[in-house]
Write a structure and sequence with these properties.
328 residues; alpha/beta; Rossmann fold; 2 domains; 7-stranded parallel beta sheet
């Protein structure tokens, strides 16, 4: 195939719309692929506005069968998520802060616009994880998402997220999130196929996709502090965790973990990416294609009384005025 792979999409569409005598189809075939052998693109013809996206490799036949049995595509189901607050009640009656309601509403609008990446910028202390769990709950309940990954870059953050999920009670149910959905925090190379939410460090997931042992100590420090190899070893297809394993990936502290070595983990999965951070930089904005669905800075959080402002005092002491001597 020529090097502009998207130019042949019309040809694929022609084949898919043709009557094929060996299956006697009355409708066009729904799943379309083009591949150069290096780059593979996929279109789900059942989407509201079908358009192609790059995938790591072809989806498994079992996956395509499952998708056909579901009847509608995930992108179609995202259009039917009910409004978070149709009656425009004050956010506190939803047990949400205004900034959380805004973030979830805008994120869901972004899904409906079929934007594959979105960034939630929210000041530390404003409740990013609670916001993410609310969004995850709504994707599982209303869009019938199959599996969601909550990706962290230290073990400590994974434990915190798990605790929050265990204590989270949704707005429209009195059972806890973990009673409604199966949550697994990955502690080994074993990933349960019945998990609906997985919590993992990006280091652990990388080692699973590379099929190599994980040195547990590397989960303790955030990957941004590492000296990374010039040419990272590429991840390879893993039949236990195929690229379609997750529908959505929420990336905690995404400003630290979406570059260099770790980017391949995100490129492997055919999933929508949602970044969570209090401190994005230009690279973060670029990665999420400037699709900022929440822009809640520390200054706004202080103005709303969610966070406390800081004042700096200079205090003079005897040592600062006269210096000190070190005894022999």
């Amino acid at each position: 195939m020529g090097h502009k792979i998207t130019e042949v999409e019309q040809q694929t569409e022609g084949y898919a719309s043709a009557r094929l005598k060996w299956i006697n189809n009355t409708k066009p075939l729904p799943f379309l692929y083009e591949s150069t052998g290096i780059i593979t693109r996929f279109t789900d013809g059942r989407d509201p506005k079908p358009r192609s996206r790059e995938v790591f490799t072809f989806h498994r036949p079992e996956t395509l069968k499952e998708w056909i049995e579901q009847g509608t595509s995930l992108r179609e189901r995202l259009h039917h998520i009910p409004l978070l607050n149709p009656d425009h009640l004050p956010a506190k009656t939803l047990k949400l802060r205004d900034c959380q309601e805004t973030a979830i509403t805008h994120l869901e609008q972004s899904f409906k616009a079929d934007r594959p990446r979105a960034l939630i910028q929210m000041a530390t202390g404003a409740g990013k994880t609670y916001t993410a769990i609310t969004a995850m709950y709504r994707l599982l309940k209303f869009a019938d998402a199959k599996r969601i990954l909550f990706l962290v870059d230290t073990k400590n953050l994974g434990e915190q997220a798990e605790q929050e999920m265990m204590s989270y009670v949704p707005l429209d149910d009195n059972r806890k999130f973990t009673e409604l959905y199966t949550v697994q925090r990955l502690k080994s190379a074993f990933v349960a196929t019945d998990s609906q939410v997985c919590i993992s460090t990006i280091q652990r997931l990388y080692s699973i996709l590379k099929d190599k042992e994980l040195d547990e100590s590397i989960e303790q420090t955030n990957p941004a502090e590492w000296a990374q190899p010039k040419e990272p070893m590429p991840v390879v297809y893993n039949q236990e965790i195929p690229p379609e394993f997750f529908d959505f990936i929420f990336i905690d502290e995404c400003h630290r973990s979406i570059y260099n070595l770790w980017l391949q983990v995100l490129d492997y999965f055919d999933a929508s990416l949602i970044g969570l951070t209090a401190t994005p930089d230009n690279r973060t904005y670029g990665f999420f294609k400037k699709n900022v669905v929440s822009d809640y800075s520390h200054e706004k959080a202080v103005a709303d009384g969610v966070n406390v402002g800081n004042e700096i005092y200079h205090i003079e002491t005897q040592v600062t005025q006269q210096g000190a001597q070190i005894r022999a």
